[in-house]
Amino acid sequence: MELTIGSAWQMLRTRINRAEGSDELALIRADMQDLFSKEAGEGTTVLVYKELNFTHDTMIRKMILLAEKRLAAEGAGEPPLPYAFLLMGSGGREEQTPWSDQDNGLVYENPPEGMEAAADGYFSKLAQRIRQGLELAGYPPCTGRVLAENSMWRRSESGWEDQLGGWFAEPVWENVRYLLIAADLRCVYGSEALANRLKQTFHETISRNRRLLQPLLANTLHHKVPMGLLGRLVTERYGPYAGGVDIKYGLYIPLVNAVRLLALENGVSHSSTLKRIAALMDNGALSDETGTACREVFLSSLKMRLSTPFYRKNGHFATAGILPAEKLTRECRRELKNGLKFGRALQRKVIRQVRGSVKGRDASDAKPRGHAGQ
Question: What is the value of pTM for the model shown?
Answer without folding.
Answer: 0.90
